[in-house]
Amino acid sequence: MKPNSKLNIYRKTATTTASPGELVLMLYDGALRFMAAAELGFQEEHFARRNEQIHNNILRAQAIITELQATLNMEKGGAFSENLYRLYDFMQTHLTEANREKSPEKIKVVAVFMQDIRDAWSQMLLQQSAAQATEAGISQGLGAQC
């Protein structure tokens, strides 16, 4: 078995067993990874390879942002979802400009916003997990008393 195929099996298992919240976290991580790869492209000396690396990785990050926009529940999320949608639009526009102008600064701006959102999302997942664990402990404790 090739090492790459083991990695692919791991990734497939991770995504099929993850909760919806964990999948969103994986999307944020992926977008950040692609933006970092695009920024690394600016160090490439060969013009064509540099442009290809920057372009392809920005497109991948934009595809993830599009997916994040598509998963927003605009009815239930209300103003929060609308604001997040607009922030994703800002990111898309900035990444398009970064790609066209070959501007690492514009990628960095988007990466900072994405990292902040990712960290907040991760914190929310941790708090949910802790709350569920506390509820489970209380439920088990009550069950033992009955």
Q: Report the average pLDDT across residues.
A: 89
Percent of residues in helices comes to over 70%
Q: What Rg is obtained from the alpha carbons, in whole angstroms?
A: 19 Å
The CATH superfamily turns out to be: Flagellar protein FliS
Alpha plus pi helix count? 5
How many β-strand stretches? Answer: 0
Determine the N-to-C terminus distance.
Answer: 54 Å
Q: Sum up the overall morphology in one term.
A: globular
What is the C-level CATH assignment? Mainly Alpha
Pattern of helices and strands: HHHHH
| CATH architecture label name | Up-down Bundle
Structural class: mainly alpha
CATH topology value: Four Helix Bundle (Hemerythrin (Met), subunit A)
Explain what this protein looks like in three dimensions.
By secondary structure, the protein is mostly helical. The chain has a single domain (20-134), classed as Flagellar protein FliS (Four Helix Bundle (Hemerythrin (Met), subunit A), Up-down Bundle), CATH 1.20.120.340. The chain is 90% helix and 0% strand. It has 5 helices and no strands. It is globular, with a radius of gyration of 19 Å. The N and C termini lie far apart (54 Å).
Give a summary of the structure in a few sentences.
The protein has 5 helices and no strands.
Per-chain topology:
Elements: H1 3-17, H2 20-41, H3 47-71, H4 74-101, H5 104-145
Helix pairs in contact: 2-3, 2-5, 3-4, 4-5
